[in-house]
Structure formats: C-alpha cells, structure tokens
Amino acid sequence: MAARDSQFPKLDVREATKVYHTRSGDLLAIDRCSLAVEEGEIVSIVGPSGSGKTTLLWSMSGLHHLTSGEIALDGQRVDGPHPDISMVFQDANLLPWRTIVANIRFPFEIKGAKPDTAWIDQLMHRVGLEGFGQRMPRELSGGMQQRVALVRALSFKPSVLLMDEPFGALDAFTREEMNHLIEEIYLDTRTTIVLVTHSIDEAIFLSDRIVVMSARPGRIANIHRVPFERPRSLEIMGTKEVFDLTHTIKSEIVGDQISKARNRKNAANLSKAS
Ligand SMILES: Nc1ncnc2c1ncn2[C@@H]1O[C@H](COP(=O)(O)OP(=O)(O)OP(=O)(O)O)[C@@H](O)[C@H]1O
Ligand SMILES: [Mg+2]
C-alpha cells in the first residue's frame, strides 16, 4: 500500500448522481449522494430494494460512470477500475473448471501480474481453507466459496474492500461466522470496508457507521454511528442500545417505503379523478 496523504478521506463520494437511460425513459437511481469514508472505517449501506445501494457501491469501485459528481480515493479522482479497490459480490463467481487456487490466480493472469503466493496461502489459512487449494468449486459449500471470493478480493492487498450483499445467500449461522471472519480480517489488515447489506444485525455487528438510503431516487437519508469497541461479541446484539438502533433504522427504511407508496397511490387516484 502506498503512503497516503491523510488530509483526504480514504474514499470520498461527492454528489454522486446516476441516471440510467432505459427504453422506458430515464431513471434517476441515485441523487447527489455524498459520503466521506475514512481510512480504516467499516461503513454499511442499508435501504429498501431499488434505493440505489448497488449503484452507489459500483460507482465507488470505478466500474460505473456517474452522470454527475465524482469519487476520489486518497484525494485522486477514480475514473475506472482501480488496483487499490476490490469487490466481493453476492455470488462467488468462481470458474467451475478451475481449481480454487487457479480461480484466485485468474485475475493476476488477466493483468499479467505476479501473485504473492505467500500472502494467498496466509489468507487461505486465515479463512480456514488451508488444504482446499486443489479442490474444484463444486466440492465447496456456498460459505466456503464465498471465503474463496474473499481471498481472491484480498489477494491484491487492496486498501478498500467493497462488498455487495456478500453473505445474502448464506444461512443465518454461516452468515454470523462470516461476520466474525470479516471482523478478524479487518483487525489484522485495517482495510477500509464498504458493505451493502439487507441485514441490520450484520450492519450493526460490523460497522462504524451505517448509511440509510431512501427509496428511489436513492438519497442518503441518515447516517448512524455504531459505538461499540472491537472485537465485538454477539452479546452486544442483545443490548438495549442495539435494539433501539435496529428499531430506528427499520422505521427509517419501512417508513420511507410506506410514505412513498402512499404518495404513488394518491397520485394515481388523483389522475383517475381528473
Ligand atoms: N443497469 C441498469 N439499467 C437500468 N436501470 C438500472 C440498472 N441497474 C439498476 N437500475 C435501476 O436503478 C435503481 C437502483 O438499483 P440498484 O440495483 O442500485 O438498487 P439496490 O438498492 O441495490 O436494490 P436491491 O436491494 O434490490 O439490490 C432500480 O430502480 C433499478 O431498477
Ligand atoms: Mg443491490
């Protein structure tokens, strides 16, 4: 990781706006979203389906061009895929005909770069996959495949890790295990993490701050700070503080959905009446 100028946030989202041009017209997916993610922070993004969480995350990766606004990493504008930013998706996206190790090496082959095999071995050990390198993806469970995706994303030693519902397809226990794993890796590497999730529990367990998006067009409705020290134990999840925070975030998400649905219904009734 290169030395950085700490006067800038690690990742700075400035007035990010994205309009999709579709056959049925233009769709404003995110509208002037601004967020400064500090180095070593874990930030989660939650919000109703369609509120632009994925759009915002992809924009942060440089994979999506914004209609207006900009993203900066360490003060430098991000205009395309960046070697310091890695992504993990809901699906592990492993190539079924390649072994686990060959899958992890694949992006290096494409870039013509040399993988740091000692680091990859260390990561495989960290996620409990030591000895699985020569297996095929079909021989691994969903949770194990997602661990491989995590190793692949971290193999580049990124300074920012973006994750879009990485554990959404896993059962509740495996998901909790993965949350502990992410926390452990974070405590080792202090990688800056931005995570999109539908699970408020997951967001609270992992994050320093939780960003709540409002229903379309996606805007940042609120940002909550999560005050617990790390490592966090599952016991915090039963505290009144967590109960209250969960309730507040749920009301913000559901309340927003209900009021926008009512507005749509009223508008439809008005147009019928006129
Ligand atoms: N490639 C695309 N082309 C056109 N419209 C898109 C495209 N991607 C997303 N959208 C639209 O933009 C809006 C925001 O989508 P996005 O996927 O960012 O939401 P999300 O919050 O991630 O939703 P979910 O929680 O369901 O994953 C939605 O209305 C969606 O239909
Ligand atoms: Mg999404």
UniProtKB/TrEMBL annotation:
Single Gene Ontology MF annotation: ATP binding
Domain ABC transporter: 11-240
Xref: CDD domains: ABC_NrtD_SsuB_transporters
SMART domains documented for this protein: AAA
Pfam family, one: ABC_tran
Keyword list, A-Z: ATP-binding, Nucleotide-binding, Transport
Keyword Transcription regulation found: no
Annotated SUPFAM superfamilies: P-loop containing nucleoside triphosphate hydrolases
InterPro entries: AAA+_ATPase, ABC_transporter-like_ATP-bd, ABC_transporter-like_CS, ABC_transporter_ATP-bind, P-loop_NTPase
Family assignment from sequence similarity: Belongs to the ABC transporter superfamily.
Name recorded for this polypeptide: ABC transporter ATP-binding protein
